[in-house]
């Protein structure tokens, strides 16, 4: 999905980059961009022809990969002469989404999208905002409130070696109905509902998005000073940093802050993330786990002390192994699984 968002940004970049050449030339360039990426589709790209605004209309835009896809009946990119590097994306209130090979009706309540470009960075997407009050599938609400904001920032000295670009992201997902999504074939491993995610996270990419480059970019690391995740009656706050190691596995350290440590361990075992024998060991030693120290040698954000009633559970992923509070619990997962 991140690739689809960047692809939209590049289409907007093409429109801005060809402003002087007119809408016809811009629509041809966007059609070439879409045709050159097998993950993107469109049946027609044509000039908007609504002066003084500049833009284009894309018929049946879509994104697909082995994990699934999204298709909309249309999308319109608009730019104003007063703000030629900012594009507003008009979206319909319905479309289709493919999950596990099955197509479902997609509903979007009051969708909004904005893309701002960076002229001094080869027209890379500098800001991307996507919002919707509600998302439905086959008429059933699955998300109550979608808010995704991405801001390109300068690479810092602590960025992974593979990083070439960085985005500061704000993520807000409210009341995700995991049971509905699971019945449709999305593997959520029995996460209780309603689920929610809110907070900021820094994303590192292996390339810089550009109208002259490819959209096949991948996230190679992330870091957060606080991402709150809810699942049913459970809630935890994640602080930490995880990057992709040379073998494609997750490497780094996170701390889980929660008042529901026992429930979270039980849920992780039910989901098959930790073996049953480890589940008993961890539950019996929760008091000691809460006293485990953060590894100060590993890079990452500041890890605050837990508040009243909370436990802080340090999780380290090093040399292909994962440890919870210093106790080995299994092999480190692939980076893309986190």
In short, what is this structure?
By secondary structure, the chain is α+β, with helices and mostly antiparallel strands. The chain contains six helices and 20 strands.
Please outline the helices and strands.
Layout: H1 2-17, H2 23-35, E1 40-41, E2 44-47, E3 54-59, E4 62-65, E5 68-71, E6 74-80, E7 83-90, E8 94-99, E9 102-109, E10 112-118, E11 124-137, E12 140-153, E13 165-176, H3 178-183, E14 195-205, E15 219-231, E16 234-244, E17 250-258, H4 261-270, H5 276-284, H6 286-290, E18 311-318, E19 321-324, E20 327-331
Antiparallel strand pairs: 1-4, 2-3, 3-6, 4-5, 5-8, 6-7, 7-10, 8-9, 9-11, 10-11, 11-12, 12-13, 13-14, 14-15, 15-16, 16-17, 17-18, 18-19, 19-20
Number of strands: 20
Query: What is the molecular shape?
Result: globular
Strand content range: over 45%
User: How many helices in DSSP terms?
Assistant: 6
Topology as a string of helices (H) and strands (E): HHEEEEEEEEEEEEEHEEEEHHHEEE
Largest pleated sheet? 20 strands, antiparallel
- Mean pLDDT reading: 85
Structural class: alpha+beta
Rg over C-alpha atoms, rounded to the nearest angstrom: 22 Å
Helix content: 10-25%
Indicate the low-confidence ranges by residue numbers.
none
